[in-house]
Amino acid sequence: MIRVENLHRHFGGFRAVDGATLEIAPGSITGLVGPNGAGKSTLFNVIAGALPPTSGRVIMDGEDITGLPPHELFKKGLLRTFQIAHEFSSMTCRENLMMVPSGQAGEKLWNTWFNRKQIRDEEAALLTKADEVLDFLTISHLKDEKAGNLSGGQKKLLELGRTMMVEAKIVFLDEVGAGVNRTLLNTIGDAIQRLNKERGYTFCMIEHDMEFIGRLCDPVIVMAEGKVLAEGTIEDIKSNEQVIEAYLGTGLKNKEPA
């Protein structure tokens, strides 16, 4: 699905990503972990087109997508979410979802004059799909709630829902569990697993909650100092001495589950 080849992203003399090479297999839920400053989010930003690489390549389904802008990658089915959810706070949850698909008929002035039926039909279909997504995520009771009024976890669910409004192939999740209570985190995890198993989504997620990573992800990739340090199952990672050293000796091996 995704192959990253010797990827570099430098900021002056600082090498945020320093020769990272990795693969994300189709149909997988791949975890990306590492200490703060390891280069995880920068790697996501380069893959998703928010930052150009200094050098290296990103391949998706055999196609070189290096440096393509986010809107082009969106059309190819590559989407990402952010650690801080990016909702339209003054719009309802349903309206947030209906905004996602590009190229809607109502975006063209000509159609507002001469193709009103097409606009109505398209909006009705989007409304139905938005309600199906909200029901899938178990937040249908919030469909008419302003998105700005949601809790942090509910906003993360809504952001996940936006990926369901288009034909997503691979979704990059940046700390989907940050600031989310355990109950909602379990709901988010259930939704990710269902999307993976029932709809064929491929996921790659940055996350610091190792219990959450262990529940969802195989394989797990560890980054440190801009490089890929290790890859394997969660059990492999927890017992890897290099990984423990990267976490300053306190980390995975000795950390009690949350």
Automatic annotation (TrEMBL):
The protein's name in its UniProt record: Amino acid/amide ABC transporter ATP-binding protein 1, HAAT family (TC 3.A.1.4.-)
Keywords assigned: ATP-binding, Nucleotide-binding, Transport
UniProt cross-references to InterPro entries, sorted A to Z: AAA+_ATPase, ABC_AA/LPS_Transport, ABC_transporter-like_ATP-bd, ABC_transporter-like_CS, BCA_ABC_TP_C, P-loop_NTPase
Domain ABC transporter, first and last residues per copy: 2-250
Gene3D superfamilies assigned: P-loop containing nucleotide triphosphate hydrolases
GO molecular function: ATP binding; ATP hydrolysis activity
GO cellular component terms given for this protein: plasma membrane
Lineage: Bacteria, Pseudomonadati, Pseudomonadota, Alphaproteobacteria, Rhodobacterales
PROSITE patterns: ABC_TRANSPORTER_1, ABC_TRANSPORTER_2
SMART domains named in the record: AAA
